[in-house]
User: Fold this.
Amino acid sequence: MGAASVTEQRLGSELVEASEHINGGHVKLFCGNANRPLAEAVARALGIQLGQATVERFPDGEVRVRLLESIRGDDVYLLQPTAPPVNDNLMELLVLADAVRRSSAGRINAVIPYFGYARQDKQTQGREPITARLVAGLLEHVGIHRLITVDLHAPQIQGFFYQPVDELSAVRLFAEYLESQRLTENAVVVSPDSGRAEQARRLSERLNLPLAILAKRRTGPRETQVSYVIGDVAGKRPLIIDDIISTGGTIRRGVEALVAAGAAPEVVVMASHAVLVGNARENLAHPAIREVVFTDTIALNPALGYTILPTAPLLAQAIRRVHTNQSVSVLI
Assistant:
């Protein structure tokens, strides 16, 4: 089901006022096939038309792109999350960027709400790649001047780029939703691991709630184990906040650890990016989970029954601020 946020209402009026200026400044927004509904929503929020382009496949599966309008000298934004199928969507973005560069765009900005390949951001063992750096290099090679994204898996990924990176956060969206639904009473914000502790801390401070952290260790590329709960959760409603939910195994084991520690079986699970592969639906159907909340950085079928928070107003405001050389940090 959809859910409008206070942020959407507040930013909407600002974007309407700015749309005339943006159209005059020749902003162009194009997208691939990864999340066209989000791109259309961003275009509406900006008061512009989504750029016309053909993004399809040759019979052998190669990506074919052709821009159907002039972009010479324009400030071009390419919206494309690198969600599953990751390789196909990443290749679409690279080919789109190459087409835009060869069409003499003034500046090329990649809007990647979900930045894939981010979980391999360092070597945990010998002879492993660092794919986040590899993708950063590919984007720079095709002429990307700036990256706009939402909740990177690891903050150090920004350092893999020589070009500016504007990382937005869904924390404000989650906080406003929780308050609007009155889910903050007798609650505790929970980080599913140490890597999400900063995101959880920001949410706990916004809501003036206590913070707990799950001690987790990875036992394999697809398996994790929750060792214990750090913090007092007894009798409280856990509000788990994560950046990515892939198979949901970590969340399920975290919920079980929280209930075993005495937490109320009314867990609210929030994540910026709904990758949802494998047994994700079964894991998120745990009886102690009251509600699951995602943003729409990755296209998600509303029929699944999860709450979906719109990111279009946030992304549109970031685009407007980048285009008019204003601060983007005020949106974080």
User: Anything to note?
Assistant: The two ends are 25 Å apart (CA to CA). Confidence is low (pLDDT under 50) at residues 16-21.
